[in-house]
């Protein structure tokens, strides 16, 4: 299977996916693309010999369709079977999402359906939750709402700051996303609970 990965920033999840797609893994990375030409993750992908592309969303002010049409060019040229959103911070239109229906995944730093959207760790702490975590789900037109493919839980510790909790969750994201992608690429969509 051919996998394209969309990122916006450092790309630590992207790296874990790429590093896992070796040997008997049923998939291979064919493209890493970003909405920010300065995303540090692009250089990391290039250093591993993976094709990259950047389409700056700032070149398309108030023009989502224009941005997505530009992003589709390198994406379709790479002929991906699966698309992984990994720290990709642009909301995609229903038209774009439905084009890749059933084969686009996202990782979200909360135990969905709790805390869709942003600031998930601060919200979990403010609510006094004992647990937090991350979710890999299929992407559907409704934000952070598609079928869950995997989840991992971490404790919320006394005195936790959102940054400390985010770091603890990110470490587990790096285990969860590769494990889920390996199953998904092999045709297994049963949820994985780590
Ligand atoms: N969507 C969220 O953005 C962060 C990105 O991290 P990275 O993969 O770019 O390091 C991760 O916590 C991910 O869940």
UniProtKB/TrEMBL annotation:
Active site per UniProt: 108
EC number(s) from the headed UniProt entry: 2.1.2.2
Positions of the record's site feature: Raises pKa of active site His: 144
A single MF term (Gene Ontology): phosphoribosylglycinamide formyltransferase activity
GO annotations of cellular component type: cytosol
Keyword Chaperone appears in the UniProt entry: no
Binding residues for N(1)-(5-phospho-beta-D-ribosyl)glycinamide: 11-13
GO BP annotations listed: 'de novo' IMP biosynthetic process
Keywords assigned by UniProt, alphabetized: Purine biosynthesis, Transferase
Pfam families linked to this entry: Formyl_trans_N (PF00551)
Pathway(s) it belongs to: Purine metabolism; IMP biosynthesis via de novo pathway; N(2)-formyl-N(1)-(5-phospho-D-ribosyl)glycinamide from N(1)-(5-phospho-D-ribosyl)glycinamide (10-formyl THF route): step 1/1
Domain Formyl transferase N-terminal: 1-181
CDD domains assigned: FMT_core_GART (cd08645)
Highest taxon, organism lineage: Bacteria
Catalytic activity: N(1)-(5-phospho-beta-D-ribosyl)glycinamide + (6R)-10-formyltetrahydrofolate = N(2)-formyl-N(1)-(5-phospho-beta-D-ribosyl)glycinamide + (6S)-5,6,7,8-tetrahydrofolate + H(+)
The keyword Protein biosynthesis belongs to this UniProt entry's keyword annotation: no
Function, as annotated: Catalyzes the transfer of a formyl group from 10-formyltetrahydrofolate to 5-phospho-ribosyl-glycinamide (GAR), producing 5-phospho-ribosyl-N-formylglycinamide (FGAR) and tetrahydrofolate.
Protein family membership: Belongs to the GART family.
Protein name per its UniProtKB record: Phosphoribosylglycinamide formyltransferase
Organism the protein comes from: Paracoccus alkanivorans
């Amino acid at each position: 299977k051919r996998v394209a990965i969309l990122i916006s920033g450092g790309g630590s999840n992207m790296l874990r996916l790429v590093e896992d797609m070796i040997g008997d893994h049923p998939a291979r990375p064919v493209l890493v693309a970003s909405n920010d030409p300065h995303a540090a993750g692009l250089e990391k992908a290039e250093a591993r010999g993976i094709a990259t592309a950047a389409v700056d969303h700032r070149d398309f002010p108030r023009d989502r369709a224009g941005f997505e049409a530009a992003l589709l060019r390198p994406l379709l040229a790479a002929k991906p079977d699966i698309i992984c959103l990994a720290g990709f911070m642009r909301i995609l239109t229903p038209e774009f999402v439905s084009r890749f229906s059933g084969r686009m995944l996202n990782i979200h730093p909360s135990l969905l359906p709790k805390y869709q959207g942003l600031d998930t760790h601060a919200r979990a702490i403010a609510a006094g939750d004992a647990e937090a975590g991350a979710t890999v789900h299929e992407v559907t037109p409704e934000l952070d709402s598609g079928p869950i493919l995997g989840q991992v839980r971490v404790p919320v510790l006394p005195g936790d700051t959102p940054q400390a909790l985010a770091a603890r969750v990110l470490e587990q994201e790096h285990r969860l996303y590769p494990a889920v992608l390996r199953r998904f690429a092999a045709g297994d969509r049963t949820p994985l609970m780590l």
